[in-house]
Write a sequence for this structure.
């Protein structure tokens, strides 16, 4: 070979060497800022792994949030998401109608409702439908000309400790229809609340979609005696510093923390709530969220708010279900919940009955603190059920209780981030979908899920993504173990004092509740309708419902477990 040929070969090899070296330098730089630990199920390992190119899509599909991360959804997922968002579309105030003061906004004190006469113009009977019309007015008493207010309605009878939730129809012109099925004979009183004005909901929508950081989280990183704390969230601006990527390798659920100054991403020790962002809205917008003035305030009747219901026209025949009846999951009578579905309700008033129902059962409870209430309720009623001391935090768990005499095992675990919680070890912070994939399942396995409250500060797409992963895991569980009983708890209304509406309003929860029901439709799971159970009850709304309502929910769960009837789909 000539000398010139060797020169060319040497030049080419040198160029390849430079390119190879530069590529490795770039990869090394990326490793410094984006490190992913192993999945939570094996997070006790200390060796981090590198983010794989085939990692599942792990982002919020909202153009305002983390649009620079992850892969787009599949066509099927994109279609489902679009349909779900359309199903919760909410009327907006006319463009350019942003108020400068409260005057043109909805005022419950000036608004009125009217009971519409019965079809016979003489009387109402059990099995009929009651209609109420609401005229919303502003603070000057002028009729509103557009809709979008959030109203909650209840028909109740203190004498019988009876109550049922109403169905609200927005005519989008300031008028609303509220319909109730008439389910008991005797007096019945209408109660209607304006939770938020349409103007307030416009602010909530903006916060939900634009400010997912209004609750922020943090983690402590530790090595020996040295520790650092940084901000964490589902998405963080990358221009504020290098990120540690804790995206779950199995589900693709995203989670990030800013990298500590001196410690590595693999030294993350715990997770905790960092705090609540303040000054989220202007002083003008803050006027729309005044407790006792325009948040959860009763609307009064123009004449009377009470009717008397006579027995059914035909005592020998059951009333034909109409659209209102079909949308009503149940009602209270003598403080006892009476479901209108196909599963009969049993009331477990004695510990022996509960123990008999749960004998030989392995019960898994996944979710938030409202699901923890179920665990604590059962623990308080079953004397033989002993809580195993795992030295875990009092509120976050996980918890384990065992009744060896009846062979009952009860396990509770909080869902994965985002969770507003006291410090919890990273090894105990797991996603529900991953936990479900680790279950054997079977006729003696019960799974209960309640996941809603901690997603209120994020766009609905985040909740859709989390439910999709859980739904897929539930489907896999039921495929391999069809006898498994899966019970899902819905959201519930709550007290809205101070500025709490900006973080977890009933409107935010109602939007999620509609999504939850739609995504579980057709899946062989049971719903405990916490929304209607709380709305129909005489006790005030609370994020953590009072014990009588918790008992109703648990009784419904136990009825699903121990009912001999055929399994019904959600």
């Amino acid at each position: 070979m000539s000398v010139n040929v060797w020169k060319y070969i040497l030049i080419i090899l040198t160029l390849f060497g430079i390119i190879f070296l530069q590529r490795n330098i770039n990869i090394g730089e990326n490793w410094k800022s984006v490190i992913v630990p192993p999945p939570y199920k094996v997070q006790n390992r200390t060796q981090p792994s590198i983010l794989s190119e085939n990692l599942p899509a792990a982002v919020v599909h909202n153009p305002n949030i983390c649009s620079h991360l992850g892969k787009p959804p599949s066509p099927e997922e994109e279609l489902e998401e679009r349909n779900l968002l359309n199903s919760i579309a909410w009327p907006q105030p006319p463009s350019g109608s942003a108020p400068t003061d409260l005057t043109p906004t909805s005022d419950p004190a000036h608004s009125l409702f009217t009971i519409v006469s019965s079809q016979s113009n003489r009387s109402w009977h059990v099995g009929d439908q009651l209609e109420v019309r609401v005229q919303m007015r502003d603070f000057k008493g002028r009729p509103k000309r557009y809709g979008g207010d959030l109203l909650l309605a209840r028909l109740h009878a203190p004498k019988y400790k009876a109550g049922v939730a109403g169905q609200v129809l927005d005519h989008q012109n300031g008028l609303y229809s509220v319909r109730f099925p008439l389910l008991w004979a005797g007096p019945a009183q209408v109660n209607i609340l304006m939770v938020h004005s349409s103007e307030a909901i416009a602010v909530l929508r903006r916060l939900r979609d634009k400010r997912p950081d209004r609750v922020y989280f943090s983690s402590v990183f530790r090595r020996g005696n040295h520790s650092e704390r940084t901000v964490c969230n589902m998405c963080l601006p990358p221009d504020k510093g290098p990120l540690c990527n804790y995206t779950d390798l199995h589900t693709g659920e995203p989670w990030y923390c800013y990298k500590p100054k001196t410690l590595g991403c693999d030294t993350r020790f715990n997770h905790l709530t960092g705090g609540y962002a303040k000054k989220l809205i202007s002083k003008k917008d803050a006027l729309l969220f005044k407790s006792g003035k325009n948040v959860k305030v009763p609307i009064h009747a123009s004449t009377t708010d009470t009717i008397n219901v006579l027995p059914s026209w035909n005592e020998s025949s059951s009333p034909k279900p109409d659209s209102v009846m079909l949308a009503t999951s149940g009602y209270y009578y003598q403080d006892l919940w009476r479901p209108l579905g196909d599963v009969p309700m049993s009331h477990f008033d004695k510990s022996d009955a509960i123990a008999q129902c749960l004998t030989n059962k392995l019960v898994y409870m996944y979710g938030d603190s409202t699901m923890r209430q179920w665990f604590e309720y059962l623990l308080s009623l079953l004397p033989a059920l002993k809580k195993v001391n795992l030295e875990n935090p009092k509120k976050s768990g996980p918890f384990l209780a065992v009744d060896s005499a009846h062979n009952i095992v009860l396990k509770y675990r909080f869902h994965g981030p985002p969770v507003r919680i006291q410090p919890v070890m990273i090894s105990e912070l797991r996603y529900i979908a991953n936990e479900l994939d680790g279950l054997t399942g079977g006729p003696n396995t019960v799974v209960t899920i309640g996941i809603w409250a901690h997603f209120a500060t994020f766009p609905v797409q985040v909740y859709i993504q989390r439910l999709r992963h859980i739904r897929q895991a539930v489907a896999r569980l039921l495929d391999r173990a069809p006898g498994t009983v899966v019970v899902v708890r819905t959201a519930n209304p709550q007290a809205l004092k101070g500025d709490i509406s900006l973080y977890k309003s009933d409107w935010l929860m109602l939007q999620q509740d509609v999504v939850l029901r739609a995504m579980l439709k057709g899946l062989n799971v049971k719903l405990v309708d916490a929304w209607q159970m709380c709305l129909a009850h005489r006790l005030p709304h609370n994020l953590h419902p009072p014990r009588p309502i918790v008992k109703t929910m648990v009784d419904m769960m136990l009825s699903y477990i121990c009912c001999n009837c055929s399994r019904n789909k959600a």
Summary: The CA atoms of residues 347 and 353 lie 9 Å apart.
